[in-house]
Amino acid sequence: MTPLRDPEPRSFADLDAAPFPVFAPGSVWLVGAGPGAPGLLTLMAYHALTHADLIVHDSLVGEAILGFARPGARLLHAGKRGGKPSASQADITETLIEAARAGDRVLRLKGGDPFMFGRGGEECQALAAAEIPFRIVPGISAGLGGLAYAGLPATHRDINQSVTFLTGHDLKGELPTAIDWPLLAKASPVLVMYMAAKHLTAIAARLLEAGRPPDEPVALIANATLPDQSLVRLTLAEAATPRPLPTPAIVVVGAAVTLADTISWFDAAESRGMMG
Ligand code: SAH
To answer: How remote is the CA of residue 129 from the centroid of ligand 1, in Å?
Structure first.
């Protein structure tokens, strides 16, 4: 039996009265903004945006999301833009701590999920050491949201019982040395890679060396969930050859990629029309 619904349908405006946790002055909320489409913000992220005094955000967080900020909120960009070096991690944490100590409600807003290749852990350690109260609001990571918008299931019963998320980029911008590529190639049927476009040729070469088939499908999903989302399909052998690739992008290696042929649903052109 379906339970009866509340006779008063709820609207988005009711969120203002919803029992969200109090965003206390002097605290920091570390919030994931999702992969880009504003509709993929969590309700808690929206609540934080409309209550923060200071918003310290990454380059991956676009205007469409920042537009929800409370009028009068201060916005501070902390991240790489136009090839300029990013603000140092120490400077960012110092800014968060100083602002919280001055009594601001500080929103640290990151693309995707703050704990998925987002240095969220480091920032929380610094806040904990400084005895600043903080809260973490998870977000939809690009490695899941991007796949959904490309029609590419991260798991599928006939294909994989595990999926591996990895970065193609270490702290210095090099191919990560801590990854055991032969073991990974053998153990993980589907790889979902962040920050992997720059070193894709080297990654593909390592996977081929480790025995992955040259015709294994690879997908690169760029600007996922946004009006300029694009998909590049390659074989692993093709991925081992240098070529210009759009970014930011998630790279997926494995048979799951072919499912996009039938499941792909997002029409980026249509979404451009809706926004413009
Ligand atoms: N914390 C983020 C990841 C930060 S690392 C998350 O959970 O999604 C930055 C990398 O994320 C980019 O280099 C790219 O690989 C990926 N990324 C973030 N947003 C993306 C998007 N809209 N489309 C494709 N890739 C994206």
So the answer is: 28
Mind listing the pLDDT tens digit for each residue in 247-267? Answer: 999 999 999 999 999 999 998
Q: In which residue are the tokens 């203002």 written? A: 16
CA of 193 to the centre of ligand 1 (A): 9
Domain match, 87 and 156 both = no
Catalytic residues: 58, 80, 195
Q: What are the pLDDT digits (tens) for 78-130?
A: 976 544 556 788 899 999 999 999 999 999 999 999 999 999 999 999 999 99
Q: Residue 113 phi/psi, 5° resolution?
A: -110, 135
Tokens coding 66: 């920042």
Instruction: Say yes or no: CB of residue 225 within 6 Å of ligand 1.
Output: yes
Asked if residue 132 and residue 190 are part of one domain, the reply reads no
Q: How far is the CA of 135 from the centre of ligand 1 (A)?
A: 22
Q: What percent of the chain has pLDDT over 90?
A: 82
Give the model's pLDDT for residue 276: 42
Verify that 180 and 111 share a domain, yes or no.
no
Q: Of 88, 109, 140, which residue sits at a domain end?
A: 140
Domain count, the chain: 2
**Residue 211: predicted pLDDT:** 97
Confidence band for 4, pLDDT divided at 50, 70 and 90? low
Ligand 1 atom 18: the closest Cα is on which residue?
A: 142
Residue length, the chain?
A: 276
- Ligand 1 atom nearest to CA at 115: 1
Helix (H) or strand (E) holding 56: strand 54-57
User: Distances in Å between the alpha carbon of 227 and those of 36, 108, 152, 192, 273?
Assistant: 10, 25, 18, 22, 9
Q: Whose CA is closest to atom 6 on ligand 1?
A: 112
113 pocket-lining for ligand 1 (C-beta < 6 Å): yes
